[in-house]
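Anyone? Bumping this.
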Amino acid sequence: MAEAMKMRATMEGDVVDVKVLIQHPMDTGLMKDKKTGKLIPAHFINMVVATLNGKTVIDAQWGVGIAQNPFIGFRIKGGKPGDKVAVHAVDNLGTKFDGEVVVA
Amino acid sequence: MKQKLITILALLLLGASFSVYASPAKDRAALIKYYKKILPDIKFHDYIYGALAMNPDAKAQYDDIMSFPPYGIDLDKGKSMWETPFKNGKKFSSCFKHGGKNVAGNYPYFDNTAGHVVTFENAINACLKKNGEAELEYGGKQMGLLTAYARSLSDGMKVNVKVKGKAALAAYEKGKKYYYKRNGQLNFSCASCHVQSAGKFIRSDQLSMMIGQASHWPEFRGGTKITTLQDRFKQCQKNMRAKPLKANSEDYNNLEYFVTYMSNGLPMQTPVFRK
């Protein structure tokens, strides 16, 4: 699902500024469907790993407290133009989301 | 004595004829002059940023957000709607000149045969009807996302609304009247805020000027909530404790005609982020 993730990485001074947008419902499992009255099963991203040239820079465990279509922004020291930044996310149903971008 | 009376009468008649035919171009020039006077620091081409042009901090945040907009995924949905063929194999681009590029700035226009204002949303629905598809709901999310992408094809085009002919002028005047008419429990008109008090604070937010308000719709409020121009009219009227009209009602279309005319000459940019 390449289109489910949008990424951008630019140099800001001597750090790499990365912004990521993931398309995901982030259902908590506590909300009810207004029409049927039944609970919407939990469906959320619970792991996000970001790498710079294959080296892990972020390893995050997420819960349900993050809004729909999560937006992640972070900065990495020691990057340079041409480096590859990759983000790998997994949700509680095992769906994988991958994105990669070259630092501009 | 008699001659004097006739002269006065003639002068009165002349004056009356001048006031009846105040032209849209004059209205616009007068407003631009007025805004130059009350907001001397803001340049004409910055009017598209509305209240952001008055606050450098907010503008910097806006620029940062716009460099990687949070609505990117939603806009892709609009793009796929625009590019999906109808059942008869045609696409939306077949209904518009140049395949839909650089056309949105001409809307809304006055259709002399139909005798009413045609907005871009009307044109989209007319296209759907012509090709035997179900029309979209005005002010709905689908219409918002579709027009967000369709109008983005006209980015950079100058707003170019024309008021020609008696009927068109009447529609313009109706829109103008609506803009200046007080309504709601707070007894505000659109102009109370956006003309008389433009640049002043309303709680923590500054009020935008009317010129430039119509060049960037629909917008994503808060980054994700798609909002068309007529949705915004409704929100404004709710704030005025007035009862909003329905999207695509005649009054709103005339109002859109008037407000968009006032943004003539400013570049289109769609969609944009607003808080």
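Late reply, but here is one note on the structure posted above: Residues 2-102 of chain A form a domain with the Immunoglobulin-like fold (CATH 2.60.40.10).
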